[in-house]
Give the backbone structure.
Amino acid sequence: MLSRISVIIPTKNRPLYLRQAVRSVLDQTYPVYEVLIVNDGSEEEYLPQLDEIKLLDKKIAICHFHESRGPSFARNFALDNAKGDIILFLDDDDLIHPEMIRSSLHLFKEDVDIVFSLYMHLLSDRKASERMTLYSDKNKFNAGMHFAKPVRHFDYGIIEQRPFYELLRYAFPIHTALIRKSCLENIRFPEDLDLGEDAYFWLCMASKGCRFKCSMVVGAFYRLHDKNHMHRVDSRSSYLKYLCKLKSSGMLQGRDDLFYTNGLIFMTLIGLKRITSIKYLLYMLKTPEFIPKYVKVYLHKQLSKQYSD
C-alpha cells in the first residue's frame, strides 16, 4: 500500500515564498496526498494571492484564521485534520528537493517512525522572484539556487541510537523529516513558545521512544533572510523560555542532560545581563566537569566582582 503524505504549511504575509514552497511540494517525484495550508492571520491585501495558490492543485486546502496565533497553533490545527499516514511539516519560506519524499520513503520500515535528510542553507542574496525557478530535473534545480554546503553538525549514528542525547545538543529543521503520524498521537507543538518549538517537538518524540532514521541525501533547503522567524522575535528571551520549559518538562535524561541545559540557561542569562545571584554562580561552579574553561573563568570573575562590591 502506498503511503499517503500530508504536507502542512503555516503561512503569514509571505505569498511569494509560499508559492515557491508549494511548488516544491507539487513537483515531488512521489505525489503527495494533500497540502494543508494554514493562513495564520495574513493581512487582507495578501488574501487574493492565497486564493491563487489554492488553484494550483486540487490537493491544496487553505484554512484561514483572521488573528495570528503562531506557527505552532497552525501546525497543530492542520495535524489534527490531516488524513495522511505520513506527515511533512514545511515552513512557507523553505523548500524541499523534488526527490526528498521518494528518497526518504525508501528508508521507512516497520521499526522507523521518523526519517530525516540532510539540508542546505539557501542564501537570499537576490530577490526570490529573480532566481527561484523549480525544476524536477536535479541539475536545473541546483542551477537555479544560491546555497551553501550541506549542513551536518551532529553524529547521524548517535542520533539513531541515542536520539534524545543528540537532539538536545543539535536540532534540525522541521522540514527535513517525514514523520509517521501514528507516533504523534499524543505529541503536539508547544503553543506557548516563540522560539525552540521545533526542538521541543523533536525532544518530545525522542523521549516517547520514537525511532529515527537518517538519509544521507540532501532533501531540504532552509532559507536565510532578514525576515526569518528568529529575526522577528526577541531571540535570547524566547530561547531562555524554551530552556526553562524543557528543564521543567521532566524529559531530561540523566545528570549530563541536566547540567548541559543549566549551562545553556546560564550562558543565555549572561547574554541578557541577568546574572545577579551568587547562589546560582556557586551552583554552577560545583559542576566543573560540565563547564567549559572560559565559562569557569567568567564565573570566577563575576564572583570576585560581587564580593569586591
In short: The longest helix spans residues 255-272. The beta strands are 5-11, 34-40, 60-65, 86-89, 95-96, 114-123, 147-151, 177-180, 212-224. The radius of gyration is 21 Å. Residues 122 and 223 are 4 Å apart (CA to CA).
